[in-house]
Amino acid sequence: MATQTSGGEQEAESSGPPGAPPANRRGKVIIASLAGTSIEFYDFYIYATAAVLVFPHLFFPTGDPAAATLQSLATFGIAFVARPVGSALFGHFGDRIGRKATLVASLLTMGVSTVLIGLIPTYAQIGVAAPLLLALCRFGQGLGLGGEWGGAALLATENAPRRKRALYGTFPQLGAPIGFFLANGVFLTLAQNMSDAAFLTWGWRVPFILSAVLIMIGLWVRLTLHESPAFAKVVADGTRARRPVVQVFRTSTAGIVLGTLIMIATYVFFYLMTVFSMSYGTGPGGPGIERTDFLVMLLIGVVFFGLFTPVAGLVADRFGRRPTLIAATIAILLFGFALEPMLSSGSTLVVQIFLIIGLSLMGLTFGPMGALLPELFPTNVRYSGASISYNLAGLLGASLAPYAATKLAADFGLWAVGGYVSAAALVTLIALVIARETRDDALEATPVRARA
What we know:
Elements: H1 26-53, H2 55-58, H3 65-96, H4 99-117, H5 123-126, H6 129-157, H7 165-173, H8 175-193, H9 196-203, H10 205-223, H11 229-237, H12 244-251, H13 253-282, H14 291-319, H15 321-343, H16 348-366, H17 369-375, H18 382-397, H19 401-411, H20 414-434
Helix pairs in contact: 1-3, 1-4, 1-6, 1-7, 1-8, 1-10, 3-4, 3-6, 3-18, 4-6, 4-10, 6-7, 6-18, 7-14, 7-17, 8-14, 13-14, 13-16, 13-18, 13-19, 13-20, 14-15, 14-16, 15-16, 15-20, 19-20
């Protein structure tokens, strides 16, 4: 039977009142929402790492290393074009046929695309077809991730007690640091145990092909789930949207706009702290840190990302989503001014402190998003709304972030990259000031509105 929390809410357990839909145990919800996004982000990040370390050498014409890196980072951005398409596609089915089946489909789409990347011949072997196939598989990765995050966030929050929604919403968010840690840990292990020639010849393919094992684990977990209680109620009431994507734009436009802008700083900041910082930190124009050393430094920083993510959820449950995110966003805005002096200091210790502080702030801003974005939308269009706003922010905030930062650093210097971070934070700060608090809303609430 259900158990009571200290606030009087019922925890999700394996059974409920007679006639009620079967509920998921809390532990299963945690594992399923965390495991799936960990796998998805692992797949996504091994591409990001390879886009800096491997693909410029193997999939693009040789001659100008800087141009090859920019071309590789451009393929990195393709996934962010695909993600809004994936959010509309999987959001439609998530709101029509259910969260469970859609989460399985998104995982398979992402996983198959990732494994195929590990099998593509290089430019030297098949010429221009190599980068074209790489771009196609990258599009598949983005398509799958476009439907993955929204479903995982709904799985967590729609099974959560109301006063713990932000904490539950951090479970899928933790997939980001865990996936990053796994991806870069695999690359680091390979790089330390084989020569550069062997790594470029075949070693880089191993992380992509290994994802097949993780996919099977994720599928096993998700196939054992019951449908979320909120969606089961929509089905029982006969209130499913016929065209969820059309309806969410018609009835919840404010939620989409505010959700997108609130996520902008998070996306820009994260990909500059990881992809750009590694490219700059290990490149000829930067401090010249060894590739394996910088990967270790990033892994240390990501530990703090993981630690501060649930902390942000607890704070957001206690004090509200807006105050928590406003404080974190102001800190990111100010941190933009520290980017140039810290990243160009030439000191490994200072760069490590830079990564720790930055990725700690990333945890504080990313953690509450798993609850906030679903809370902006009513149940019958929630999958579509949360996914679309999340992935539109990715398109606007992250798709060009590594590319734009590389160009800004080359043309103007690192101070311009710091200004880019601060400008993105300012956009998010304005959106947070306009938005209203959603902590006390029921998940069946009407679409979010700006504060009066």
